[in-house]
Amino acid sequence: RTAIEEVILPLSAAALSVLPPALQTHTIPWSSHPWSDEATKKRVDEQTVIDILTRRSYEQRREIAFEYERIAKKELVVALKGALSGSLETLMLGLMKSTVQYDASELKASMKGLGTDEEALIELVCSRNNEELAEIKRVYKDMFKKDLEKDIAGDTSGDFAKLLLALTKRDDPSNVVDYEKIDDDARSLYEAGVKRKGTDVTTWITIMSKRSVPHLQKVFERYKSYSPYDMKESIRKEVKGDLEKSFLTLVECFENRQLYFANRLFEAMKTKSAKEKVVTRIMVSRCEVDLMRIRTEFKRQHKRSLYQTIAEHTKGDYQKALLSLCGGDD
C-alpha cells in the first residue's frame, strides 16, 4: 500500500468511530470507498483526508487523532507528514493544532533561523486582542519553554520592538471607554505626529497599547477634528517600514478586524499564483474564530466571494482543501 493508503484506512475508521452510533451504520458502495481499486485510480485518497479533516472542529480532529493512534499504532500527524507534501501538508498539519497552538507555532516559525518573517510577526501580534495574546504567551511557553517577549526582543529592534513588546504586555481585556481621556488622547496623537517635526513614537505606542478597542475607535474619530488626515493617513506620513505596517495593522484591526483579514487574503491572491503561506495562515488561524464574518467582509469589499477567489488563484488538492475549509460560496 502507498503512504497515503496507510493513512486513509485507519483515518476513515477513526473518523467513523467518533460519529454518533446512528451515523456509524451508514454504508457506501465499495467502489466509493477510499481504499477500493476504483477510488485509488481516481486518486480520491487525498480527497478523503481533506473531507475528514477540513469538515471537523479541532476537538473532533483531536478525537479522530486519538482513535487513529489506537487503530494504526502510529500518530496521525506523523502519518500525514509521510503521506502528504507541500502546501497541502502544511495546511493539514496546521489543522491538527488548536487555534492558540497554531498561532504560537507560527510566531515561533516567524522568528526561526537567520531571517525574521516580519510580515507574519506583525499580523500575528497586531491583529490579536489582549485575551488572545495572553493565551498565546502561555501556550508559547508550554510548547517552546521560552518566553514570547524574550524571543521578540531578540529578533527585533528599535521602535518596532518597543511596539510589539508593549502589545504583548497588555493585560487589560476590558472594553472600557474613558470618556474623559478621548479628547486628550486624540490631541496627544496629533501633537506627537502630524503637528510636529519628527514623530514622538513613544506616545503613539503608549496610547495604542494601553487603551481598549472601543476607546480607540472613539479616539480615531475625534482625531479627525484635530488633524487634516485620518489616523491611517497620518501613520503613512509619519513612519515607514515595519513600524508603519504595524501601526496600520493595529488601526485596521481596531476599526474592523474581519475586514483586515479579508483584505490580507485579497492581497495574497491578487497575482496569478497565491501567496500560499499567507492564505494558509489566515484560513487555518481564523477557521474556528471568525471565518464566516471574513467571508462576508470579503464579498462586501471586493464584490466577489472568497470561495471564487480561492478557486481562481490556487490549484490541486491544496485548492480543494481551502475551498472545503472556506465552507461555501457567497
From TrEMBL:
Gene3D superfamilies: Annexin. GO terms for molecular function: calcium ion binding; calcium-dependent phospholipid binding; phosphatidylserine binding. The keyword Repeat applies. Transmembrane segments: none annotated. Coiled coil: none annotated. GO terms for cellular component: cytoplasm; nucleus; plasma membrane; vesicle membrane. Pfam families: Annexin. Keywords: Annexin, Calcium, Calcium/phospholipid-binding, Repeat. A pair of annexin repeats may form one binding site for calcium and phospholipid. Belongs to the annexin family. This is Annexin. The lineage of its organism: Eukaryota, Metazoa, Chordata, Craniata, Vertebrata.
